[in-house]
Write a structure and sequence with these properties.
By secondary structure, this protein is α+β, with helices and mostly antiparallel strands. The protein is about 25% helix and about 30% strand. Among the domains are: about 180 residues, Phage tail protein beta-alpha-beta fold (3-Layer(bab) Sandwich); about 90 residues, Jelly Rolls, CATH 2.60.120.1440. Pfam families: FecR, FecR_C.
Length: about 425
Amino acid sequence: MENYSGYFRQGNLIAKYLTGELSSHEKEELDAWVAQSDHNKELFEKLTDEGILNNELSRFASSGKDDAWETIVTKTGFNKPQRHSYIGRRSINYAAAALFFLVSGLLAYQFIYKNTPVKQIVQQQNDLAPGSNKAVLTLADASQINLDDATNGEIAKQADMIISKTADGQLVYEMAKSAVSSSVEPTYTSVYNTITTPRGGKFRVVLPDGSKVWLNAASSLKYPTKFRESERNVELNGEAYFEIAHLKNSRKEAIPFQVRSVGQIVEVLGTHFNINSYSDESSIKTTLLEGKVKVVKTQTISSSKSTKVGGASALILRPGEQAQLAPGIRQKLNLIAQADIEEAVAWKNGQFQFKDTDLPTIMRQISRWYDVKVDFQGKVPDTKFRGKISRDVPLSQFFQILQLSGVNFKLQGRKITIKS
């Protein structure tokens, strides 16, 4: 894992340089870093160029976030810049930090709507590592295998399938050579396995049909060790990204694939899609990247009132679209024609990504990935966030970013307390 702490350290030194707050020791440290490489020198020049800083800050000012600017004016004392205006020294503190995160790749521009001068708000005595490849495999006989402790290679056999764990964190099902070479068609039996990721865990599985599934934290997938010729059905709780193999049976007919989650069924042939079905989220989201899927409500309102009260009973999704199913008795299935694909699958690509995301939503993701409990004390801040950060950073470095919003975080053991 890359050491991100250095990025935060240098960003802080550059901000102090621009505001004239560098100590002699810190100046020596910054000079040494700049001299290390041409890349560092070029980065330093960009981050200290007043024209670039003014342009970036003006872009922020023009985005209509008046409440955020009122907070900045109150806490820093500088005024909202007009287009092409010169940035006062007291404002460069913020702009340098924002630009540094942008160039270093830790944050997208305007990660935070509300901002305060760079300072340490989180005072914590412990830290938590990010999630990793962790899961438990439950076999048909209810025996369990802890996959993060299991050695690489063959770990079990189920019917005619050999189950192996690979060095790069995958669970793979392959037909045994004896079954492949046999001229007798094996009798189908319903033998199911379940892979479950804990909070702070993730895992990948290659299903018996060759389909690939990425499981996010606090999720589970139930599937047969051998699929029927007529259908392929699995059950999902939590979140997963699917790449479904396009298969045909002996009659040259495409074998459909179904993913069942609470309140819906997703029907596919061969395609790439993401399903977020966490019970603590406001809706079940099915996002399509490639191919075509059909999302069907399994609990529809009876009689002719179905469309009027419960929304559509089924939707056909095309690439770039998302279905959102609201839970409860009055389920509503809605189509989002232009979904944010990058945000929907950011977790699978090792990122947290936020676009106008509120703090409770962010903290639910943090809670699952870092395996922590979150407690809000007082009014929940209405701060919203933009940007991305690697899921590989320890929790303290995540807070070093969120702290700029002015929200107070306190970590004790595996409990985060947020005070307004």
